Amino acid sequence: MKPWILGLTGGIGSGKSAAAQHFGELGIHTVDADYAARWVVEPGRPALAKIAAHFGTTILLPDGQLDRAALRAQVFANPEERRWLEQLLHPLIRQEIIEHLGRAQSPYAILVSPLLIESGQYQLTQRVLVVDVPEDLQVQRAMARDGSDEAQIRAIIAAQASREERLRHADDVLVNDRDLAWLQGEVERLHHFYLTLRGGQP
């Protein structure tokens, strides 16, 4: 029986990584879209050669790795360049995700993606779990974790899908406004429920 796919998302500082980690500890195969986005631009992969040919070698580090900061600086200032890059990378990232999800041996598998909704990656899933958290708490947590200032965090929040937008796509919502032990308990409760589902729907 092929595992069904759960999409797991939440804004910065929501605790989606901690939730994903606990699902993993329960034996569930998880694929992180952020890692897939890194794999596709590893040295030796065709995408990196295309990016270097397009933007020039200034976006490469001396060891041949992609200089993410340099690339970000180029595309953030220029919407056309950003579109070019997204058109190149999104299909490759999607392919990478599908390939990694295809290796799952667990009853269901999880695609963890901060941009699940915005990127359309939710279309690869049969069910969506949103880890939700009040915005002020989100800001506090992200500041504590990253040492970033409040304005930076709020800018990231503004760039991600709004809470309303995420919640509109959600089949399940985990409000993560307590401690880690509570979050893990909720993950276990959802996990037992998910084991009863066929194809992600009751």
Automatic annotation (TrEMBL):
Q: Would the keyword Nucleotide-binding turn up in this protein's UniProt record?
A: yes
Q: Which reaction does it catalyse?
A: 3'-dephospho-CoA + ATP = ADP + CoA + H(+)
Record's keyword terms, sorted: ATP-binding, Coenzyme A biosynthesis, Cytoplasm, Kinase, Nucleotide-binding, Transferase
Record-given protein name: Dephospho-CoA kinase
Its EC number is: 2.7.1.24
Mind telling me which Pfam families this protein's record contains?
CoaE (PF01121)
Q: What does this protein do?
A: Catalyzes the phosphorylation of the 3'-hydroxyl group of dephosphocoenzyme A to form coenzyme A.
The pathway this protein participates in, as annotated, is: Cofactor biosynthesis; coenzyme A biosynthesis; CoA from (R)-pantothenate: step 5/5
> What is the protein's major site of localization?
cytoplasm
Family classification = Belongs to the CoaE family.
Please list which residues make up the signal peptide: none
The record's annotation in Gene3D superfamilies points to: P-loop containing nucleotide triphosphate hydrolases
Report which superkingdom the organism of origin falls in: Bacteria
Name the HAMAP family for this protein. Answer: Dephospho_CoA_kinase (MF_00376)
* Keyword Disulfide bond attached: no
Root EC class: transferase
Instruction: Quote one Gene Ontology molecular function term.
Output: dephospho-CoA kinase activity
Q: Where in the cell is it found?
A: Cytoplasm
Q: Which residues bind ATP?
A: G13, S14, G15, K16, S17, A18
